[in-house]
Amino acid sequence: MTSAAINSHSAIDQYSSAYSLVLTAVAGLLFFPGLGARDFWAPGEPIYGEVIRVMFEKNNWLVPMLNGQLYADKPILYFWLALVTAKLAGGVNEWTVRLPAALGGLGLVLMTYQFGKIFFDRQTGFLAGLTLATTSRVFWESRFLRLDTLLAFFLWAGFFCFLKAWLKEADKRLFLLAYFCFALATLTKGPIGLALPGLAIVICVAMTGRWQDIKQMRPIAGLIVMVAVLAPWLLLVHLRDEDQWITDFIWIHNVQNYALRPIGHVRPFYYYLYNLPPDFLPWTVLVPGALVFYYPWKARLREPVTLALFCWFAAIFLFFTASKSKIAYYLLPLLPSLALLIASYLRALLSGTELNGVHWRCTAALSYFLSCSLLAGGIALPFIIHRMEPGLFGWVLPMALVLIAGSGGMMVFLGQRIMHSFLGSFIALLVGASLVSSLGVLPYLDRYKSPRPVGEFVKNHASSAASVYVFQSTMSDFNYYAQREKIPVIGSKVELAKLREANAQLYLLIKDKDLNDVGPRQNYDIVTEQRVGERKWYLLRAPAKVS
Q1: Can you tell me the distance from the alpha carbon of 120 to that of 113, in angstroms, rounded to the nearest whole number?
Q2: What is the largest CA-CA distance in the chain?
Q3: Rounded to an integer, what distance in angstroms lies between the CA atom of residue 136 and that of residue 133?
Q4: How far is residue 102 from each of residues 112, 130, 280, 281, 339, measured CA to CA in Å?
């Protein structure tokens, strides 16, 4: 073994008793700084923020509401967690409602470490946690107001407990804990909390032929556990005469959206083939080398844990590929299995004995390409930003320094084949870049993504008695910052004309593409305009008609 390999082992082993603390610190630096520093970005975040704001103000812990109507898109668990955070903090804001997502990301990283530690070894678990925490998708979803990190945590925790009870023949009560986690996943985002692990387990049992093990998995007791978790809230919704929520959620947002008539996001069947690689960046560059290293794959799949991870990956990938509605972040729950693949490969590279062969040449070439790209980006970024966005220049300088220093270290250590130092430089670069982004770059981008300016303009300039409407839009992105529980939707020019005939002064929120659909420009005053995401929005004022 080379001296570099010995140093690598010592650097890893001396922290073996504190792996979880190191991972917590790294994930904490990635997910939590500046969590509330930027506004809610449209589309999406302002909707969840408004649901939670209304529930908080009305002290309603049972049924989500949005724009004066039932919000049947998602179940209740994330909203409960955000409400608890808001109660403890004294109010709803960007930080309190994003905190459960960040905690979900942290839990997912630590659970991946536990998975690797139990089924492989401590070092593999640690490397898997580092890999997962620094992937682009996990980093972003842990800082964004969405439910998917929490969903992924419950699913992955349940799968871990299930495999530990089954493959390690541990305490069979772990099966019940697995079913409990799957029920919490269902309470977070719906039936996929049961469908995804169920499909993965069925595939795994079928591929191993161990059908006789189904009895020991305690399915009847598991069903009782899941009913005990899910039934109380659903029963309370029923007793509140809100059965329409259950009907809309199950039929429209699950059955219909999955297989029949999607609400949106209709993508081709190969959508995830080109979206998964960017979501796993920057570690995608190690995947080809890892696949070569583990060839022949058939022999590897004879290992029960490797087969289980393959089934987990395949079940989630195929399930969402079969859906008519596709969004990139749906694949978040399968990323831990990829992280473990890369971690096992990194463990072999860090040993110093595998720095040769086709797999190493592939990995070295792609790693050099990544390092050179980061170096070039660090050099070019200040010049590009100075020309295109001078206001961001103060934050781009430290970003450029991080990229140049980190990528330079990566190239030097890669050339010397000191892999633990290469990895350390890479992680330091990713953490440094994320801190600069979180504290400065992302908040700066509010001016392009936030509905706050328009919403607060409505709040400050339209009296509470004034009527405010939105034209042909189902996205309630302005309610939160306008502090209006309801901004009714006007569906057509005819409907708008009827409102104007009522001699009522009204304000109208409208996208640029719809501006010509509401009649002559002289009939309205443009009060303000603002770009929100990919669209420019206008606030129009239609003066009351004189009789």
Answers
A1: 10
A2: 93
A3: 8
A4: 15, 16, 18, 19, 19
The span from the CA of 415 to the CA of 226, in Å, is 53
Q: What is the per-residue pLDDT for 544? A: 64
How far CA 168 is from CA of 27, 115, 161, 164, 339, in Å, comes to 29, 12, 10, 5, 21
> What whole-number distance in Å separates Cα of residue 191 and Cα of residue 255?
10
Q: Do the beta carbons of residue 433 and residue 375 sit within 8 Å? A: no
Q: Supply the pLDDT for residue 10.
A: 47
284-295 as b/e: b if 16+ CB within 10 A: bbbbebbebbbe
- State both tokens at 457: 């303009």
Torsion angles phi and psi, residue 153, rounded to 5: -60, -50
Structural tokens at position 1: 């073994």
Select from 72, 90, 36, 45 the least CA-distant residue to 478: 45
For strands 506-511 and 535-542, give the pairing: antiparallel
CB-CB neighbours of 457 under 10 Å:
18
Q: What is the pLDDT of residue 345?
A: 96
Find, among 332, 352, 339, the residue nearest to 290 by Cα: 339
* Residue 100 CB-density burial (10 A; 0-12 exposed, 13-18 middle, 19+ buried): buried
- CA 36 to the chain's CA centroid: 16
Tokens at 116, concatenated? 């690797």
Q: Do 44 and 451 contact (CB within 8 A), yes or no?
A: no
Nearest alpha carbon to residue 218 among 276, 262, 267, 179: 179
DSSP 213: G
Ramachandran area for residue 290 (φ above 0: left; ψ -120 to 50: alpha; else beta): alpha
Q: Evaluate whether 507 touches 537 at the Cβ level (below 8 Å).
A: no
Strand ranges in 6-132 using DSSP code E only, listed in sequence order: 65-66, 69-70
- Region of residue 357 (left: phi > 0; alpha: psi -120 to 50; beta: else): left
If one counts every other C-beta atom within 10 angstroms of the C-beta of residue 521, the result is: 11
Q: What is the pLDDT of residue 184?
A: 98
Question: 167 with 305: CB under 8 angstroms?
Answer: yes
Termini Cα distance of the chain: 93
CB of 159 within 8 A of CB of 312?
Answer: yes
Strand, helix or coil for residue 63: coil
The position carrying tokens 């990919």 is: 534
Return d(Cα 452, Cα 133) in angstroms, integer: 30
Yes or no: say if 83 and 514 are a contact pair by the CB < 8 Å rule. no
Structure tokens that stand for 445 in this block: 């981008």
Spatial contact of 156 and 115, defined as CB atoms under 8 Å apart:
yes
Percent helix, strand and coil across the chain, each rounded to 5?
70, 5, 25
pLDDT of residue 3: 45
Both tokens of residue 64? 């989500």
Q: Which amino acid is at 199?
A: L
| Residue 182 CB coordination number (10 Å) | 28
CA angle at 358 for the pair 357 and 363, rounded to the nearest 5°: 105
* Residue-by-residue DSSP string for 98-133: HHHHHHHHHHHHHHHHHHHHHHT-HHHHHHHHHHHH
Q: Which stretches of the chain drop beneath a pLDDT of 50?
A: 1-12
